[in-house]
Amino acid sequence: MTDTNSEAPRRRRLARIDDIARLSGVSAATVDRVLNQRPGVRAVTVQRVLQAANELGYLMDGTLPAQALKPWRLGFLLPAGTNRFLNMLGRLIISSQDQLASFNMRARVDHIESLRPDLLAQELLRLGREVDGIVFMAIEHPAVREAVDVLADRGVPTVTLISDIANTRRIAYVGLDNRAAGRTAGYLIARFIGNRPAQVAMIAGSLSYRAHEEREMGFLHLFREEFPDIEVVGLREGHDDEANNYRQTKLLLARHPRLAGIYNIGGGADGIGRALREVGRQRDVVFVGHGLSPDTRAMLLDGTMDAVLTQNPQASLMDCITIFSSLRAGRTVQEAAMRARTELIVRENLP
């Protein structure tokens, strides 16, 4: 009769470093460094090696060393400024520490001056020395791409949030299909205006954000393809700032008296709403924007805004957590990464 109580010690005696290396997909030298708690191995690899060792019964009593129990440190790098959706997202992350702790993670939020790629690149590299993974809103620029790839070489995975970046080794993007979002905004404005000649305009944060550029392209193509009688009279950049957006809207209204619609591609919606109310055109100019926040909610309620396209901030945070959890467990990130669902909010379906 087999003594089942002796099976676990037997597995511990038989399991070798080479077995752990094969199961975890790393070299025997890396396994040795991890088991002897020597530095120089990235956090995700440490987790994979220790889990393999535990599964093979190599670790006594099935316990993991203290380094395996150490929470993963996530850093969220968000633009500073008056974008109320981003500010709301930052507060949500800070208030979700208990939820993060249930996944053995903790998070910090750093804000930087937006639209400065050199500063973003520097902050990514600085933050990468202090955390195990980074989530950030990307700017399309060679310096930022280089920083992302340097972090990948150092074993610090990065996830882009809301706005992606091309040709880098970031591990995932959490955000909308922004070209589709721009087309959706255009379709809504055109349907609200109706079948008549009209003029519409766009206000972007900055086209340095890939998200804003893709939204612009989707918007323009929709009108060229489907509504040629509606003229898109211009694109202005307000840098997601309420005061800038207020000034840009006043200029648009002065130069284009027949303006019938405005698409706010980025943040700072309250500045646009204030300008529309000042000239008494909040009821006849169709106003569509992004990000459900206290200001856009209030403008939906009073009729200044007609529709808001948004992504659920809680769901976006959970997507980030799922991605890093999968990475830590050695699963492919593609299994965890999902494109955020675009939510269309009007006054009648406000949550």
Automatic annotation (TrEMBL):
Name a Pfam family for this protein: LacI
Residues spanning the membrane: none
Name listed for the protein in its UniProt record: LacI family DNA-binding transcriptional regulator
MF terms per GO, please? DNA binding
Q: Where is the HTH lacI-type domain?
A: 15-58
Among Gene3D superfamilies, the record links this protein to: 3.40.50.2300, lambda repressor-like DNA-binding domains
Q: Which InterPro entries match?
A: HTH_LacI (IPR000843), Lambda_DNA-bd_dom_sf (IPR010982), Peripla_BP_I (IPR028082), SBP_2_dom (IPR025997)
Q: Which UniProt keywords apply?
A: DNA-binding, Transcription, Transcription regulation
